[in-house]
Amino acid sequence: MKKLITTLLLITTLMMTNFIFANYTPTAEDEKSLALLEKQIEKLSETPKDLWNFYYQFKILKNKFADTNNEKLYYLLSELTESTHQKFKKQKDQAKENMKEIKKELVKQHLKNINTEDKEILKQCLEHYELIDDLSFINDFPTALTMATRYRESSCKFDTFPNNGDGPFQIVTQDYGTGEMTEAIFIQTVEDFINFSKKKYKSTRRTFVSR
User: Fold this and answer.
1) Among 44, 52, 141, 139, residue whose Cα is nearest residue 91
2) Does residue 168 contact residue 191 with C-beta atoms inside 8 Å?
3) Whose CA is closest to 118, among 148, 143, 170, 155?
4) Residue 19 per-residue DSSP state
5) d(Cα 37, Cα 43) in Å, to the nearest integer?
6) In this model, does residue 48 exceed pLDDT 70?
7) CB-based contacts of 143: which residues, under 8 Å, 6+ apart?
């Protein structure tokens, strides 16, 4: 919530600038304002999760202003979306660099034994891999476990909820309802699953250690 409020304050600051309409070209003042905002965001982003939250909030706001005539604001939001995403991606890539080759070999090994029908499901699962990988990374959780559970419980369906209302991961004790599933709701289901799994792991570990 703190990061959302901060983001909205930053955007309010942007909106107080003069509106510039058709054929907008950024000025030196715009670039200076952008650099200042990026510096503030960097100070506020103590973890990769903070940075990803900024990126996703800017992305949502950018899309909301896409059809307006405020081209200056849209430009600034677009630049902030891109810069925060690139900084986050750099952090994630650096953290995962050591495991890259091991993962490639593991994927090659398992793909050889997958039939045609399963390959179609695999393709469906990989369509939103980057988003799931981001969410798993910022929550310090194995991407493979998130992917595997989603595949096992809902065959990686994205646009609609399972008919029982339990969501794409099923094991979370929450009623998500049925019907259309938006990206924002999907993100919530992933984070709910990760939080549930972590709590379950800690509870099981405490029980095991106490024996």
Assistant:
1) 52
2) no
3) 155
4) P
5) 10
6) yes
7) 132, 133, 136, 137
pLDDT of 65-78, one tens digit each? 877 677 888 888 89
Q: What integer pLDDT is reported at residue 136 of this predicted model?
A: 92
Integer Cα distance of 81 and 166 in angstroms: 32
DSSP string, 48-68: HHHHHHHHHHHHHHHHHTTTS
Q: In 97-128, which ranges are continuous DSSP H helix?
A: 100-111, 116-126
pLDDT at 127: 82
Phi-psi region of 92 (alpha: psi -120 to 50; beta: other; left: phi over 0): alpha
The domain locations on the chain are: 2-96, 114-210
Q: Which residues contact 76 (CB under 8 A, 6 or more apart)?
A: 14, 30, 33, 34, 37
- How many H-runs (helices) and E-runs (strands) does the chain carry? 9, 0
- How is residue 25 written in tokens? 């070209």
In this model, does residue 85 exceed pLDDT 90? yes
Q: CA separation (Å) from 151 to 77, 117, 154, 169?
A: 35, 14, 6, 9
Non-local CB neighbours of 13 within 8 Å, separated by 6+ positions: 37
Alpha-carbon span 134 to 183, nearest angstrom: 14
8/2 Cα distance (integer angstroms)? 10
